[in-house]
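hey
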């Protein structure tokens, strides 16, 4: 059994990025926040699938070259090996839930010069 309050963790980049409430043993669970104009490096996972559920605001997520405009209440499932890139071109912060499973200590392959 495991209980934690979001206030007990911090976002990776101050007021943005992932805030992991759980990492392993079988999945990761994070609250993710992007301020207006922010993005996250394009990447894929060899083993883990990733899900995003939009709590507040809106975001654009590119999956294998196709751009999706997601807003509050939307859910997206990303399969292993599907390249994804998140960016917030909107004027408000976006807050979303991210899950990754099955848990892997290291499974992220970043693509520095990704274009779509």
């Amino acid at each position: 059994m495991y209980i934690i309050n979001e206030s007990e963790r911090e976002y990776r980049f101050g007021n943005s990025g992932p805030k992991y409430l759980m990492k392993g043993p079988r999945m990761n669970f994070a609250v993710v926040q992007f301020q207006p104009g922010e993005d996250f490096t394009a990447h894929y996972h060899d083993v883990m699938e990733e899900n995003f559920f939009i709590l507040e605001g809106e975001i654009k997520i590119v999956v294998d070259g196709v751009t999706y405009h997601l807003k509050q209440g939307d859910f997206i499932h990303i399969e292993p090996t599907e390249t994804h890139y998140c960016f917030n071109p909107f004027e408000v912060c976006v807050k979303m839930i991210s899950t990754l499973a099955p848990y892997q200590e290291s499974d992220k392959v970043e693509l520095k010069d990704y274009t779509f």
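The radius of gyration is 14 Å. DSSP finds no helices and ten strands in the chain.
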